[in-house]
Amino acid sequence: MTTLGVESFDFLAGQMLNAETQWSLGTFGAIAEFARDLDEPFTFHRGKASLTLMTGRGGLRIKPPAEMRLVAFETTTRESWSNRVALCLPDERCSMSRRTVLTELGPDDGALREHDRDSILFDLGMDALQADLYVRVSDPEVAVQLRAQEGRPLLEPGNPAMGVILAASPHRVFASKVGRIEVYQPIPDPHGQSPEGPHTHVLPNLLHHRRTHSATEQIPQGWVPCAHLYPPHPARDALGQSRPFDAARHDAFQAMLRMFGDPEFFALKQRVVAAVTAGEDPSVIDVTGHRFARTNVRVALRQLKATHEDAPSLAAWLAVHERNGALENGDEEHHRHHR
What we know:
- It is a single chain.
- This protein is α+β, with helices and mostly antiparallel strands.
- The protein has helices at residues 6-17, 140-147, 161-168, 204-207, 247-260, 263-277, 291-306, 314-321, and strands spanning 2-3, 22-27, 30-34, 43-46, 51-54, 58-62, 69-76, 81-90, 103-107, 120-123, 132-137, 171-176, 179-183, 199-202, 223-230.
- The protein folds into two domains: 1-94 and 177-339, no CATH class; 96-172, no CATH class.
- Helix content is 25%, strand content 24%.
- The strands form two sheets. An eight-stranded antiparallel beta sheet has the order 4-5-6-13-12-11-10-9. It has a seven-stranded antiparallel beta sheet with strand order 1-7-8-15-2-3-14.
- Helix 6 (263-277) crosses helix 7 and helix 7 (291-306) runs antiparallel to helix 8.
- The longest helix has 16 residues, at 291-306.
- The two termini are 22 Å apart.
């Protein structure tokens, strides 16, 4: 883990230019996701303090404050593992507007595209700590309809505003202190599937918990994730489907763990790999006292299994550490297919 510097800014620029890296911004229960196809046209701008990438389906801007900290970690999913880097701020520096009712804010002066800057922003009033959730309206009639419901909670029974938004499908803009994601694609039917590429999820049953992030995320105490990036996974494609293990992708993320991860957990993984490949018994490493330590051991074992290495004691280690493992898979439902 490290605070921001030139190396970190270069790292973020490289990840933004990697078409296989995906991004998200929001809070627990409400996120905007940004992804692009390998052959999709895009524009990229690197400024002195910000990075901006846009496609015809959405856009991403990262403008990292000096105190931002990158935190890389891995955690288990139901059948595999995930890898991500969280863009974190101190909890006393991450707060956004915390509005609780639908609020008109006027033209979106910060829009990524110049022709969107006259469109009207409406804060959805979701009272999330580290993110403001907006819709951006270009149709004057839709603006009139939403303006009539200003000052009411969006999810209040009988409020027609959500129906107006679903029917009009305006741009969605999710912003935090580290940047914004804009989504131009239509909102899918309530019973439909989210489109590939940029899209949003707003899940009131999860927002109700008022959590800043999933309990499975290895975020240091006192810090809050204000965006995430998801580098290419070595064993899963962008939709979460299995693919042949890619050692180069695996090595690339292990390098990120060395730069931005918890050094104790990284060292633990290395000890596990060494013990398993040496044929040692699982009892040589005691991880009963720390939940995330157990998670990192399980990740190391799953990665060994994915490489198809003929480690003599791997089966014994898996038998011990995957027992009751489903209880630790956590709540990844709002990161729908990020590995």
